[in-house]
From TrEMBL:
Transmembrane segments: none annotated. Residues 12-92 form the RNA 2-O ribose methyltransferase substrate binding domain. It comes from Halothiobacillus diazotrophicus. Gene3D superfamilies: 3.30.1330.30, 3.40.1280.10. Specifically methylates the ribose of guanosine 2251 in 23S rRNA. Its EC number is 2.1.1.185. CDD domains: SpoU-like_RlmB. It catalyses: guanosine(2251) in 23S rRNA + S-adenosyl-L-methionine = 2'-O-methylguanosine(2251) in 23S rRNA + S-adenosyl-L-homocysteine + H(+). One of its GO terms (molecular function) is rRNA (guanosine-2'-O-)-methyltransferase activity. Its main location: cytoplasm. Belongs to the class IV-like SAM-binding methyltransferase superfamily. RNA methyltransferase TrmH family. RlmB subfamily. This is 23S rRNA (guanosine-2'-O-)-methyltransferase RlmB. It comes from the Bacteria. The gene is rlmB.
Amino acid sequence: MAGGKPRQTADWLAGFHAVEAALRHDGERVQEVIFELGRQDKRAQQLRELAAEVGVAYRDAPATYFAERVRADRELGRHQGVLAKYLPAPAGDEHDLLALLDGLREPAFLLVLDGVTDPHNLGACLRSAEAAGVHAVIVPRDRAVGLTPTVRKAASGAAERLPFIQVTNLARTLAALKERFIWIVGAAGGGMVSLYESDFATESVALVMGSEGEGMRRLTQEHCDQLIYIPMAAPVESLNVSVAAAVCLFEFRRRRDAPGVLSEQPRVR
Ligand SMILES: C[S@@+](CC[C@H](N)C(=O)[O-])C[C@H]1O[C@@H](n2cnc3c(N)ncnc32)[C@H](O)[C@@H]1O
């Protein structure tokens, strides 16, 4: 990437879950933990011990300090009397993606989100993607939410562990994946093949989901080898993107986990 990756600025993490996940999985990037003065309960004590174990400084601050932080950053949400200053790792780029693919010892399993803008949806997608064994989540750099504190909180630790790749040109990235024999399967309410009949679930595959409002862009759709739909029992217009992603990912996971499946020879395009 020309000019290298942009310099990261520190984010705030709020709440026990988010702070604990960062300490456990990305401790060297936590700069300090701040407890609300008077929090001496067992949970706070355990978190202090974890911070000490990881070598992260912690201190107490009055309730007014927490109120100020929340006022300054509306995204912080419920802090439960604990905040952490966190220097996030920069998101990966196209080169990181190719390096990651080179290092895989099993058929690639990727999630592509074409313009998801709601941080709660992205967080939920990351959480499900990690649980389903996805190797990386790919998003466009523009017109999509990145790894904000709200996303990190909703992802419950997955944002610190799962490779997150931001690309400048999603269509070009999909073309590059195809060159590496990765099938592109798009999920769309108007898809042609039922999720349960997709024959790409067990191969090197990138599952593409559309955005909340518009769905998948036309150019993205044109790169798909197959468009699948989730059969629905009632005439609902569509599912929330994170719900649809979880349904598709876990169906693919189920099929990939069948005995002997991932060891079979991959099909050639
Ligand atoms: C809220 S939906 C977008 C709705 C949008 N109006 C459209 O027509 O695509 C967000 C994304 O979730 C996925 N999705 C939702 N319902 C689906 C279904 N029944 N089958 C397949 N994918 C679905 C698709 O990837 C879709 O782009």
